[in-house]
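Hi team,

Below is the intake form for 6-carboxy-5,6,7,8-tetrahydropterin synthase from Methanobrevibacter woesei. Please confirm the fields before the structure is written into the shared record.

FORM ID: S-0412
PROTEIN: 6-carboxy-5,6,7,8-tetrahydropterin synthase
ORGANISM: Methanobrevibacter woesei
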Amino acid sequence: MKILINGIQSNLRFSSAHIIPGHSSCGFIHGHSYFVDVEIEGERAGEFEFVVDFKDVKGYTKELCNTLDHRLLIPIFNDLIEFKEFNPSEDSIDELVNSKVARFKIAGKGYSVPSEDCVFLELPYTSAEELSKYFAEKLASKLAEKYDNLTSVSVCVNEGIGQGAVYTKSLVE
Ligand SMILES: [Zn+2]
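The structure came back. Fields below:
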């Protein structure tokens, strides 16, 4: 059986800025009001014969939304982002998180942003595609701590109304 949670109606939203380096229109800093739909498939189980408790799914998803809300999202594994004092293939991400300022260049343009205004993500892009994968994997591992009856977790990250990307994380071997 499958359960569905609608991000707009359940307030699973966040508003963030990002850049898609190298893209002709999305290569500039801009923002989206994102919302996150969740679909979970599994056997009904436990005292109440739930697939999963809605409260858990909404709670975990909201926590993830809150970590990204009102920040500039920076994909540290993007090939076009050159950090001044940080090397993503050698240094710990904590160095960036704990630094005062993140200094980087994209195609010759220089950026200097307070680190506390940013969320550094171990991703190549902060596209809807990558963010849906990020959410699905985080949510699946969190749910797997409590549930053993689930077969998949799908997340649709929507960049506003009318466009989103879905990623399905399987929980079966
Ligand atoms: Zn965008």
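SUMMARY LINE: Residues 128-144 form the longest helix (17 residues).

Thanks, M.
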